[in-house]
Amino acid sequence: xxxxxxxxxxxxxxxxxxxxxxxxxxxxxxxxxxxxxxxxxxxxxxxxxxxxxxxxxxxxxxxxxxxxxxxxxxxxxxxxxxxxxxxxxxxxxxxxxxxxxxxxxxxxxxxxxxxxxxxxxxxxxxxxxxxxxxxxxxxxxxxxxxxxxxxxxxxxxxxxxxxxxxxxxxxxxxxxxxxxxxxxxxxxxxxxxxxxxxxxxxxxxxxxxxxxxxxxxxxxxxxxxxxxxxxxxxxxxxxxxxxxxxxxxxxxxxxxxxxxxxxxxxxxxxxxxxxxxxxxxxxxxxxxxxxxxxxxxxxxxxxxxxxxxxxxxxxxxxxxxxxx
Length: 324
Known about the structure:
Strand order of the largest sheet: 3-2-5
Number of helices: 8
Number of strands: 10
Strand content: 15-25%
Distance between the termini: 195 Å
Structural class: alpha+beta
Helix content: 40-55%
Radius of gyration: 61 Å
Shape: rod-shaped
């Protein structure tokens, strides 16, 4: 009785093991390689799959999603014999699970070594300055070589990035000094341009101010001259309208002579030719007035020397007529 129970228990265990090996559940974005007696049979896709227990065996489960693998810094020699350390990051994806399993023993390691050798070939044809400024060019060249080489492994390289390019310490110090000198030079140039622009603007402002001042003075002089001319015309029109006689004109002319001589700058002025006749007439009038006031004395017709005497350019002294 005990032997029968033991046999039944063994059979139950074998059935459970067979069921476990028969039913295979593959996760989404994954694949499994099935071998039968050590030979590739088929690839299991995502979902529920049935295999023959104790005959079929799951060789490998492969993730079909895109993978990101960072590689450690690799020393690379440039064309100008400088050693730089370059960090790379590879984005790849398994497209053929069978090829990734049987075409290469370890595709991660194979990709890393291929990346290092290809990177050294590319950087070896560039100098340091071009290496630092040609990341996109290096990425494109590296991706093209890797994608071509890994295609037969069932792997597609989607992207290659250079994470860091570190030149030697001495070169870094020299580059920092050069950049500092360039910044100082640009700052000096900008400051000089600012001073130059400021002086130009100040000069233009002074020029414009002088022009406006000169225009203002010219306009003021023109308005002043126009006003004086208008005043002269008004006086002239008033005299003609009033029909003034020679006596009044002579008297007004003599009154205006001191105003003409006013001012420190009037050192020389011209006496018109008509002043003789005006003064002669004024002298005769003054003589008549004097004779009339003294009771009609003799010789009042001429009035003696009644012409005003000019002692100096700045003033006029009028001498009263003598009556003899």
